[in-house]
Amino acid sequence: MTLGTQGASAVNQEIELLTRVASLYYLEDATQAEIATALGLSRPKVARLLHKARAEGIVEIAIRTHPALNLALESQLAERFQLSQAILVADQRSEEIQRTLTARAAAEFLTRTLPADGVVAIGMGRNVGAIPEQLASPPERACTFVSAIGGSPQVGASVNPGDICRRLAERFHGSAEVLYAPAYAEDMASRGALLQHADVRETLAQARAAETAIVGIGDANDDSAVVQMGCFSTTDMVRMRKEGAVGDILGYFFDIHGAPVAESVGSRVVGLSADDLRAIPRVIAVTSEADKVRAVLGALRTGIADVLVTTLRTARQVLASGE
Asked: Are 211 and 119 in contact (CB under 8 A)?
């Protein structure tokens, strides 16, 4: 056995011990003293192992807020912005855990409410892209998941609508229709040419006929998704913020009051329009980031979203906003 193999074996043994100790404590309700006795360890050693299990990510702790508090805030949010439903998740310090919990809440909502068949239009972004992995064992749904906007080769596949459609279709045993086009055309003429392409035209027509849409809420910051996708430069974003932009849904930017801004930008989008989205019976907007309060407020005022999935922190700040 080589030294490298010995080292790997030692690491594996430690991971097994961490996992065993964590399982006994968190899943089997054993006390630290009982674990120490069962495994021949000291009690301080068990405490250190539990701490390390959390640090190594073997244990992930999420605090769930009491449903009564959620219900009150959800009702206030739904009433204020004429939503059919608001779904709020507990606040987390880790952005990654926050996104996971928000996506899980959206996944559970879909599992409960998605019809046996039909069409679901899919947007882009990390929050929407996180949903498929949170679908544990959903019931089979013969739905067609169709791209609501084009994609970009400059970002990871997991945030592109086409990839998200395929993964959702796989989980629900449905089918996927991908829009093979960029999210933004270079100019209006290029967009017009793309929209005349038979495949693009037919895919968007199918998306417009959807009964449900799932979209993210973008912001107007220099590191926003549309900048990462290569659709805009930071200079473009500075200009749009000067025009009042606070966020976007499917590439259509709006101000804090929900009014459209930078409409020349919207005229380049290869995807569903804001009016197309408003015509869809149920639009689910999903967002988890703590710095998107103004974007969420503007998005709710557009009248596009019917269901909002977000955090308690965001809900409180949106409701408290005097803007």
From this structure: yes
* Domain match, 30 and 110 both: no
Q: Are residues 21 and 150 in the same domain?
A: no
Does the structure show a pLDDT above 70 at 81? yes
> Would residue 61 count as lying in a domain?
no
pTM for the whole thing?
Answer: 0.79
CA distances 264 to 66, 220, 247, 253, 277, Å, are 45, 15, 15, 10, 19
* 87 and 16 housed in the same domain: no
Number of domains, the chain: 2
178 and 94, same domain (yes or no):
yes
Check whether residue 96 and residue 232 sit in a common domain. yes
* Tens-digit pLDDT profile for residues 261-316: 977 777 788 999 999 999 999 999 999 999 999 999 999 999 999 999 999 999 99
For 13, 26, 56, 91, 122, the CA distances from 51, given in Å and listed in that order, are 17, 12, 9, 21, 40
What secondary structure, in 3-state letters, does the chain show? Answer: CCHHHHHHHHHHHHHHHHHHHHHHHHHCCCCHHHHHHHHCCCHHHHHHHHHHHHHCCCCCCCCCCCHHHHHHHHHHHHHHCCCCEEEEECCCCCHHHHHHHHHHHHHHHHHHHCCCEEEEEECCCHHHHCCHHHCCCCCCCEEEEEECECECCCCCHHHCHHHHHHHHHHHHCCEEECCCCECECCCHHHHHHHHHCHHHHHHHHHHHCCCEEEEECEECCCCCHHHHCCCCCHHHHHHHHHCCCCEEECCEEECCCCCECCHHHHCCECECCHHHHHHCCEEEEECCCCCCHHHHHHHHHCCCCCEEEEEHHHHHHHHHCCC
